[in-house]
Amino acid sequence: MCRVCRPLAASGCRHCSAGADGWIASHELDGRLTARGFLCLCIFTIAAVMLAASGARAADRIRIAAQQTGTLAWELEVIRAHGLDRKADLDIETTELASTEAGQIALKGGSADLILSDWLWVARERALGDDLVFYPYSSALGAVMVPQHSPIQAITDLRGRKLGVAGGPLDKSWLLLQALARRSGVDLRTQAAISYAAPPLLSAMLVQGKIDATLTFWNFCARLEGQAMRRAITMADVMKQLGAAGPVPMIGYVFHDGWAQRHRALLDRFFSLTRQAKVILAKSPSEWQRLAARIGTSDNAELDIYRRRYAEGIPKRPLADEVIDAQALYQVLARIGGPNLVGPAQALPPGTFYSSGPSE
Fold first, then answer.
1. Residue 298, Cα to own-chain centre: how many angstroms?
2. Which residue spans within 110-210 are E strands per DSSP?
3. At what angle do helices 172-183 and 319-337 cross, to 10 degrees?
4. Whether the Cβ atoms of residue 37 and residue 28 lie closer than 8 Å to each other
5. Is the C-alpha dihedral spanning 335, 337, 338, 342 positive or negative?
6. What residues form DSSP beta bridges with 254?
C-alpha cells in the first residue's frame, strides 16, 4: 500500500509497486482516471512539490549596517570572497553607512538587525528601557601616538603638550585616559592644549608637527606606525591600570535581545563564520593585499602592521571575564562622564552582554 493511498482506501492500493505508468493504469477505468485515482494523483503531485520546495529553502537573512570604512566591512568582504555565507546558509544583507551613529539609528529604527557599537551605549539604552545586547567583536584599542624621537613616554609627560583627541569630549578612550591621569595628579583638560578633530586630520597634524601627540583609534595608529610614529601610551595599558585584568573589547555586535531569542540558531551560525573570517585575516597577508583599496594603502609594511594589530584584537577570553572587566571600567566612566555619558545607571545593567551558549 502506498503512503498516498493508505488514508484513502481501507482495501489498499495493490498496484503502486508497478511504477509511475502502472500506478496511473491501476487507477484507471476504461482509460479514464477514477475519482479516487484523480484524488491520489493530486495529493501525490502536491507532496512532490512541497518536498522540492523544502529542498530549495531560501537562506536565512540577516541585515547588517556596517560603517563603510570600518573593520566589519573588511570581514564581510572576506566572508563573501570565501563563500562562508553560502556554506552557513546565510543571506547577509549589508548596508554601508558613514558613521556609527547612523548604524545606531538604523538598528533602533528597525532597518538593521545587527551593528557594531560599544557596550557603554548598549548599557545606556538598557538603562532607558531598551532590550539591546552586546557580544564582543574586538579588543583592538587606540593609543597616544607621538613622533619616534618624542620625549613623551608616560601620561604625566602630556602636561603642557598639544594633544589631539579623536572622537570628541565623550570618547571612551579619552575619558579613561583622563581618569588615569588624575590618579597621577594631572588634569589633562586644563593642563594640556586639547584639539578635538577627525582622526585623519589629527594624523596629518601630528606628522606636520602641529601637535605633540594624538589619541586616536587603532587603525589610524597602525597607519601612523608606518609613518615613523610610535605608541607612547596604549589604551590596553590604561585599562589595566584602571582595574581590568586583560584586554577589554569595547566594540561588539549589538542587536535586540528579543530578535536574538527568535534567531538564536542564525546568530550562532553568523558568529561562527565571522570567527572563521577573523582567522583568515589574522593568518593571511594576501587577504590584506585584496583589502588594500578599501583600507587606503598598498604599502606592504603598513598592511602587515594592520594585520598584526587586527589579530591582537581578536577576543580570546571567556565572556565572564569580559563582563567583570567591563563592570570595573563602567564605574570609572560613570564617575568621570556622569549622566551625559552613561544615563541613569550607576552600574553596568544586568544582561548587557549576550551569551551565545553555555560554554560562555
1. 25
2. 115-118, 132-138, 143-147, 162-166, 193-197
3. 70
4. yes
5. negative
6. 115, 134
- Span 105-137, pLDDT tens digits: 999 999 999 999 999 999 999 999 999 999 999
For the record, the C-alpha cell of 148 comes out as: 619616534
CATH number at 143-241: 3.40.190.10
Q: What is the pTM of this model?
A: 0.81
CATH class of 60-140+247-342: alpha beta
Whether residue 270 contacts residue 91, with contact meaning beta carbons closer than 8 Å, is answered with no
Instruction: Catalogue the E-assigned strands of the chain.
Output: 28-29, 32-33, 60-67, 90-97, 115-118, 132-138, 143-147, 162-166, 193-197, 213-216, 229-234, 251-256
The b-or-e profile of 292-322 (16+ CB within 10 A means b, else e) is: eeebebeeeebbebbbebbebbbbebebeeb
Structure-block grid coordinates of residue 147: 613622533
**305/311 Cα distance (integer angstroms):** 10
In 3D, which of 62, 61, 70, 68 has the Cα closest to residue 252?
Answer: 70
Domain ranges of the chain: 16-55, 60-140+247-342, 143-241
Q: What interhelical angle do 300-312 and 264-283 show, nearest 10?
A: 140
List strands edge to edge, sheet with 132-138: 115-118, 251-256, 132-138
Burial class (CB in 10 A: 0-12, 13-18, 19+), 349: middle
Q: Do domains 60-140+247-342 and 143-241 have the same CATH topology?
A: yes
Three-state DSSP at 195 gives: strand
Q: Is 291 exposed, middle or buried (0-12, 13-18, 19+ CB in 10 A)?
A: buried
- Give the model confidence (pLDDT) of 1-32 as tens digits: 444 444 434 444 444 444 444 444 444 445 45
Q: Which amino acid is at 339?
A: P
| Residues pairing with 64 in the sheet | 94, 114
Core vs surface per residue 103-137: b (16+ CB within 10 A) or e = bbebbeeeebbbbbbbbbbbbbbbbeeeebbbbbb
Distance CA 239, CA 173 (A): 9
Q: Is 231 helix (H, G, I), strand (E, B) or coil?
A: strand
How are beta strands 143-147 and 229-234 bridged, if at all? antiparallel
